[in-house]
Amino acid sequence: MAEAQTNPAGNTAIAVAAESTVATRMSAPPSFDVADFPVPHGREEEWRFTPLARLRGLHDGSAEASGGLKAEISAPEGVTVEAVGRDDARLGRAGKPVDRVAAQAFSSFEKATVVTVPKEAVLQEPIRVGLHGEGGVSYGHTVFELGAFAEAVVVIDHTGDAVRAANVEFVLGDNAKLTVVSVQDWADTAVHCSQHNALVGRDASFKSVVVTFGGDVVRLHPRVSYAGPGGEAELYGLYFTDDGQHQEHRLLVDHDAPHCRSNVAYKGALQGQDAHAVWIGDVLIRKAAEGTDTYELNRNLVLTDGARVDSVPNLEIETGEIQGAGHASATGRFEDEQLFYLMSRGVPADEARRLVVRGFFAELVQQIGLPDLQERLLAKIDEELEASVA
């Protein structure tokens, strides 16, 4: 049973302890075939928090692809970018779709994109993928593959207005190092559902930083598994949920190889009426995964009344031979002592509030490692806070 701390102020925030195992969270096994997944009705474990009526038909097959998404990829020399068909053997190596929307995305894209970093290549500049919505429905599938001992940074930037469903795969060769930053800076009317699958090779290192600001509904599903011993995965997330927005992050770290490590830390701030954030953190340590070391954390800062958080950490262990395992979930308001300390030293209330929120997110923003993007995201946080004061 997971431990959860709840906001004592009332119903503005809720943290929920896990009541089900990882295995029971999915109503159907992974599959590329849409027909293998029944149309969700909202009572399933994996859909019970999601406002299905606001998915604009992504969940029931009525959302037909209509284009309207501008995609640009900037890659350093030596990196290959290919458009491939659905029968390409590299698709699905990191994992199959686990729900109907992801399966719909796989069956509906025109061409998939495969980005390959050759073995032993150490990229000095990031691979940048810009996805700008111009209205309409779009589906996609992208694979990033790193050869052995390769090192790369990937930035995926979502902007504009769109109804978007996609699968993104990250395949790391032995001893490879990959950092991925996925930014959801959509317009307020956008809908975005995406499954991220990472397969981490022997002694490889994978870091994911997910940043979610915009969108009417955003539902992301990062998943990690290991192709050999010694792999490391770090999953960081930052989200800022406003009036009426639904932002949902559902994570699974599947420890299926020995002597691997994972660390999960997601933080969110919420403000406004009916702002709703959902965080599901599942960690499964299988019988073969001896020597595993894992920890997951979710913290939420509720800035106003009317916001709601559902936080569900879940840790399932099938072997007693582990290095360490733990999890924590906490939801609360500003600490009065922090605000009082700043205000007693002449800092105006609004500025004190901004500094506290910046400090709350600072550790995660620093994980990005790209100064231009870090400055943009901090500016976005300030913009969100200014909007709440206006």
UniProtKB/TrEMBL annotation:
Protein name: Fe-S cluster assembly protein SufD
UniProt lineage: Bacteria, Bacillati, Actinomycetota, Actinomycetes, Kitasatosporales
Location of the SUF system FeS cluster assembly SufBD core domain: 133-360
Similarity comment: Belongs to the iron-sulfur cluster assembly SufBD family.
GO biological process, one term: iron-sulfur cluster assembly
Coiled-coil annotated spans: none
Top-rank taxon, per record: Bacteria
Pfam families in the cross-refs: SUFBD_core (PF01458)
